[in-house]
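Hi F.,

I've been meaning to write this up properly since the lab meeting, where we talked about keeping a consistent format for the predictions we share between groups. The idea is simple: the sequence comes first, exactly as it goes in, then the C-alpha cells exactly as they come out, then a line or two of notes. No screenshots and no reformatting. I'm using this chain as the first example so we have something concrete to point to.
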Amino acid sequence: MGVLSLVVLATLPVQVAQSDSSATFADRPTEVLVRQAIARHHSQDSAVSDYRARLTYRLSFSLGKRRWARIPVASVEEQEALVQWRHPNDIKVDVVGRRARARSDQWKIQSLFDKPWFVPRGLGDSVSFFANEVPERAALHPFARDGPQWYRYALVDSLAIATPDGNLRVAKLEVLPKREGLALVAGAIWVDAATAQVVRFTFRFVGTGLWSVPDKLTKGDSAAARRENAIINRILRVDADLEYGQQDGRYWMPFRQVISGTIEVPLITDIVVPFEATTMFDDYVINTGETIAFTVPMPDSAGGDVPPGWEESRGEWRARARNGREGTDDAGVRPSRDYAGTWGGGRFQIHYPPSDSLDAYAGWLEPLVLDRSGQDEDRILGIRADLERLTEGLSSDMTGRRRAGIAYERFADILRFNRVQGLSAGLGYRWRVPGTTFTTLHGTTRFGLSDARLLARLSLIRDGPGGRWSLSAYRDLRELDPFFRVKTAGNSLNALFAAHDNADYFLAQGGSVQYETSLARGWELRLTGRIEGQSSVPGDATSGLNDVLGGSGDFPANPAIRDGLYGALSLGLEGLSGSANWRVGLEGLAGEGDATGRLVGYWRQPLEVGGGLTFQARAGLASRPTLPQSQFRLGGLQSVRGFDYGTGRGQAMWAAQMDWALNRNWVRPVLFMDAGQVGPADGLFDERVLVGAGVGISALRGLVRLDLSAPLSSGASGLRIDLVFGAPR
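Output, unedited:
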C-alpha cells in the first residue's frame, strides 16, 4: 500500500482578525476548528485496529561554521525494520538491516534503541520522542484538553488537495505559547477540515523546563534544574515535522517523521552541529486482524525495563567497549539484542539480529548517500526558518535566544597570543536588533599586554536562510596569509609554548561589507569589500613560557608593509569534492598608485590507506609589481615544516605536504614531509626548493599533535617543535 500522492490545487489565504496577544483564538472560525480538533484528538480511533509496515530510519550529523549554510553531512546511518502495531498501543519492531557511511572513519555512528523511537500512530497529550527521552520533560500537545490554557491559536491558511475521491481541504493552524511554561511547543498544525484529524504537525520544543527535571521537589534541586535548562536551551534546538499520508483513501497513517536541530557552543557563534533523524513508513497493510506474537518475556519488577539476564550481557558489552571492541565477540560480531517492556498504554518488543546479519541485508531500495536530496534539504531549512520567525517574539527563557549578552565570533577571541600583541584578552557583546529577524549587532574589544594597543570591531550581522551579511567598522590586527587562519586557539598555544607564530600582521583601520552564502551543498561563497588604512606594526612580544621550557622565547621580526589607504575586493569559494576539501580565492588590493591582484588555491585529499594518508597542496600567483603585504610566504606549519614561517617571500609560490599515520589508535605516530618554492612568477621553478620532514605524536585522532620537524634542504638549521591542533592526521 503506497502513500497517496497529494497534489496541491490551490492555496487559499484566510484573513486572520487582529486580536489581543493574550487571546486564545484569533477568531471564531479558529475556535470552532480547534474545539473540533481537541475532541477528535481524544476520541478513540477505531478505524485502524492494527497494521504492518516497513520503516527506514536515517540518522545524520554535520559540522559547520554558519547556522544557515548547506553543510555537507559528515556521517549517516540507516536502519530498516518491519513493524507490527495493534490497538491500543502494542508494537513489535524487527530490525532487519543496518548500514553506515562517513567522510572519515572517526565520525562513524551507530544507534541502538531499547524502546520505540518513533510515533506509531498519533501523538498523545504529551509530546516526546526517542523512547520519551527527548525532551526529558514531555511537552503539552496543543490539542490536549488543557491546551487552550497555554496556547494561542490562529487559522492562517487552507488548501485543497486532489484525491481520487474528490477534493480534500486541509486547514493550517499556527500555535504559540501565550505564557511561559515548563514544556511547550510552537509551530503549525495542518488538520483535515472534514474530520479535524491531524495530517501534519511541525513544531519546535520551547520551555523553561524541557531538558532538566529536578530529582526532588526541593528549592535547591529546582534551581539547579532551571540553570541546567537555561544552558541547554542555549546549546540545543530541536524541531519536529510529523507528516501523515492517506492510505486506501481513508486512513491517515504516519508517513515521514523528522526530528532535526542544531547544537551550538555557548558564547561562540562560529561552531554549529546540525543533526537529523528521519523515519519513513511504507508498505502498509492495514486491519489484518492478526495478533502480535511477542517472543521476549516482560521484565520482572526487579529487572526494571530490561529482560531477565540482560543486565549481565549489558555489562559484558560495556566491558568490551572499554577494551576497544565495542561490544563485539572475538570474531568482531555483535550478538543479537532483544528489548521488551511497557510504554504509552501498550507493550513493545524490539529485536536486533547479530551485526553480521544486519550488515548482510540486501533489501535496500536505494544506495546509501551521505547528503540528502536538494528538495529534502530545502524542506528542512524552510521549516527551520519558519519556526525561527514564529518563535522570534517568545521570551529568551523559553527559546534560549538571549536578547543581549557576552558572545564571541571565535573561541580564540577570548584569549589570544601572537608576536605583536603578546597575550591579549577580548570581550565580545551581542545584541539582537529589535523588530528584525536574524539580525544582531556584535561588538568586540581586545587589549594586548605587549603592545598596549586597544582594538575594536562593531558589526551589524544578518545571518538568515539566504546568506550572511556583515557590515563592520574596525581597528583590528589582520594577518596577511591567504591560506592559514591564525586567529585560532591552536596558533596561540603554539606561539605560547613553541614561540612559533605562523602569520605576519598589520594594523587595519576602516570598514568592510561581506556576504556569505551557499551556492550548493558544501560550496560556500564569500564576497568582501574593504576600505581601510594599513600600517606596519612591530613584533616586540616574547614568550616567557617558551623561555622557561628551554627555548629563547623570541620570535622573528614582523616584516613591514607599505603603509597607506587601500581598497580591497576579494572573492573566496570553498567546498568539498568527494572526500577532498578545496579552496580558491581572488583578491585585488589598490591604493595611492599601487595595486596588486592575486590568485590562490588549496587542495586537501585524505586517503584511508593504512593508518591514514593526507595530501595537501597550495599555490598562489600575484601580479607585478607586488605590494609587500600581497607577497606569498613559504615556511611554517601550513607550507614547509622545519622552516620558520616567512623564510621565503615572493610573487608566486607552491607547497605540497604529506601526513601518514602509522596506525588508527587514539594515540598514533605520524610521519610527514613537505616541499615548496617561492619567488618571481617567471622564475619560480628556478628557485631553491625547501624540503622539510618530521615525526609527530597525534592524540584523539589529530585533535592535538606534537610535531618534531627538521629542514632537509639548506636555509635553516636545527630541530623545531610545534604544538598542532586540528592536524591532518
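Notes:
The longest strand covers residues 505-520.
The two ends are 49 Å apart (CA to CA).

If this format works for you, I'll send the rest the same way.

G.
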